[in-house]
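Protocol step 4 of 6: structure prediction from sequence.
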Amino acid sequence: MSISVYETSKMHVSIGEKEVIKTFKKRPGYKKRFKREKKALQRLKGIDGFPQIISHRNSTVVMSRVAGDNKEQLSNHSLKELRVLVDNMLEAGVARHAIPERDLLIDDDKVSMVDFERITLRRHRLSPSWLFAKKVTKFHLFRLISNHNSQLLTDDEKKELETFTAVRAKLQNLKKVRSSFRKVIRTKAKAGNYTKKFESSNLRKD
């Protein structure tokens, strides 16, 4: 029996007393999101602080329900627990693209993490994509800790956070420039097509 239901355009989540049933709706990319969630939970099986996969079929994953609620402020103890959680996750071969507070459930300072659609799975420990994914996960961990209590970061971690933040800002600016350039190209292409049609129409009339 469901206690509550959470639904978006991409998924339907039924939350029971002991289980959570997550179904990915048939939207673009839903198969990839389902596979990532399933494989991540399989790698995290047996590790404390993560939902334990029970079964999966088609585009549905059934997992154990972890205790806790979202908190606006994380205690120092919770932040230290989060470090251990992230280290265990990376050791299992799962790197997250982000660590938003909404994916962290706190129960008496015990931290659990949910939702694993946007992740990178390790194939080889020294593969460039995996090493970069680990850096991204660490960046989000350090940023989250810094938002709550920056004193918990070492000097090296603060420098790494500053460096990655600067690089990320440059990449985002570059992305905006590229997006604007594409819009200009599309606009010119549409104008060109219209002009050609107009000229062709005039030629036929002549």
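Step 5 (inspection) to follow. The longest strand covers residues 2-7.
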